[in-house]
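Risk register update: the risk of archive-format incompatibility is retired. Evidence:
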Amino acid sequence: MYTKLNGNKYVYFFTKLFFISTILLVGFLSCKKDNNEIIIQPQQEDLTKLPDSLSYTLDGVTYTCNVLTGQGGGNAGANLDTSNGGWKWDSDTVQYFRSYDYRGSQFFAGGNGGNLTIKFVKKFAKAQLTRTVAPGIFGPVSDTLLYYQKGEYPFAVDFERFNNQNGIVLDLIGTVSGSNAVQIMSTYCYKSAGSSTTITNDSQKDSKFEIINIAFVPAYQGWWNCHLIEAKFSANVFDSNERPHHVDGYIRIHVD
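Archived output:
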């Protein structure tokens, strides 16, 4: 239906024709730039084709890492009980972790080449550790159980202490504010379970490690299947005097 204006029954027809013509003209012009160049939106980059890349900002300084220098894994006791004055590990549970070490390509040439180690840590029942990862080291059927889905993961603050917690462990280098001294800082406590510490389970309560992408990579570098993980984090790291330093970072790494 339409409404006549000023008695002219053709107003609606010509008004509609005008708007259709205008829309077509605008659509045509929006697809062109100067010199009649067509604008084509770039396709999203394939995550699986990207190289490893890590960066973190510590005390206002940004460090970069892109060279894998080592990887490994291990087992340890879990759920240490010291309540009766002795040390007793859980007889049915074992901690398993995988670690990946990276440094910057400019690490030995000055600049802001960083050094970062990330560990994925999880407890398993002994019966679940059916795979021999290396002589004397046993893991679950797949390491994907350490990072099997996107989302947030906690930091394992009591790593190498009581080993009650699953999650992420970070070690990284940084310059201590007010000096030129470079030292390793970590998201957990260095001290053994028998030593007192100011680092508690609440020391990372406002921290965050989030896996934002996981992609399967077949025949990586021509010979092995793996996964590529993309994550971002914000955490506290502690120097040798247990002073906290804030760090924000990003990782994109290939893992087994």
